[in-house]
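[step 3/7] inverse_fold.run input=structure_tokens len=211
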């Protein structure tokens, strides 16, 4: 496993991390969640993988060359970074700062290696692992996406089996079987988390009760 160094960045009051094996439906769930939870803002990652046809640079990812990525690593621009499926991915300090300065809660769609680095830095974050209902359905969804060869699908399934072994590290597991139910479950988790004084946005505050 190759992971990046965790560097200093102002501590966010709250951060939400969503991980899932490739094909489990993370992109779909994140899109639905952002429509229903305006307080959340998607943290756009940097990556060296080529854009997919429907992806918009600066919106889905900041697409960069390996040289540009390495330069950013050297300048300690990332709060976490990792190699996933042979490409570099990272969350930049600048991206987190942009979201926090706008008064929003960052939603990070990152893999387990990245989640591990973020958890070391901000253990009070909310860590959710999205799971497929079965390995058969995961394979179907990967094929349905239509951008992978048979060999790549096989490798992603193998990788997914490894990734779920890190499941203990997350606060919640959500199965993405029926899309609306998965999204509603995550909303319920967010709602519950917002009422916990020890973690999330209430951390370190005392109750404010109007006179
Ligand atoms: P990921 O971002 O995790 O790789 P995607 O969101 O691209 O996964 O989803 C993979 C495929 O599965 C897509 O074709 C998507 O439409 C489909 N999909 C996602 N969630 C569901 C669901 N709950 N039920 C049925 N199909 C789904
Ligand atoms: P995809 O290329 O399919 O969009 O994403 C592949 C994997 O990389 C997914 O598991 C996704 O969560 C992860 N990923 C996306 N951005 C980042 C990032 O900034 N850091 C890390 N560690 N993983 C990321």
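[step 3/7] decode complete -> sequence:
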């Amino acid at each position: 496993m190759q992971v990046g160094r965790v560097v200093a960045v102002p501590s966010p009051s709250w951060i939400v991390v969503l991980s899932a094996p490739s094909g489990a439906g993370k992109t779909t769930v994140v899109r639905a969640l952002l429509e229903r939870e305006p307080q959340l803002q998607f943290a756009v990652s940097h990556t060296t993988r080529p854009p997919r046809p429907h992806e918009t640079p600066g919106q889905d990812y900041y697409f960069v060359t390996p040289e540009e990525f390495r330069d950013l690593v050297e300048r300690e621009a990332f709060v976490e970074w990792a190699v996933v499926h042979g490409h570099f991915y990272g969350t930049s300090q600048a991206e987190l700062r942009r979201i926090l300065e706008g008064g929003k809660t960052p939603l990070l769609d990152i893999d387990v290696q990245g989640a591990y680095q973020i958890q070391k830095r901000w253990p009070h974050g909310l860590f959710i692992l999205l799971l497929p209902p079965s390995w058969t359905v995961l394979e179907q969804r990967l094929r349905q996406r239509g951008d992978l060869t048979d060999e790549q699908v096989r490798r992603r399934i193998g990788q997914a089996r490894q990734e779920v072994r890190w499941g203990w590290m997350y606060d919640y597991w959500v199965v993405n079987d029926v899309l609306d139910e998965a999204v509603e479950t995550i909303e319920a988790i967010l709602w519950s988390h917002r009422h916990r004084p020890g973690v999330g946005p209430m951390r370190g505050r005392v109750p404010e009760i109007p006179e």
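[step 4/7] annotate
The two ends are 55 Å apart (CA to CA).
Residues 16-195 form a domain with the Rossmann fold fold (CATH 3.40.50.300).
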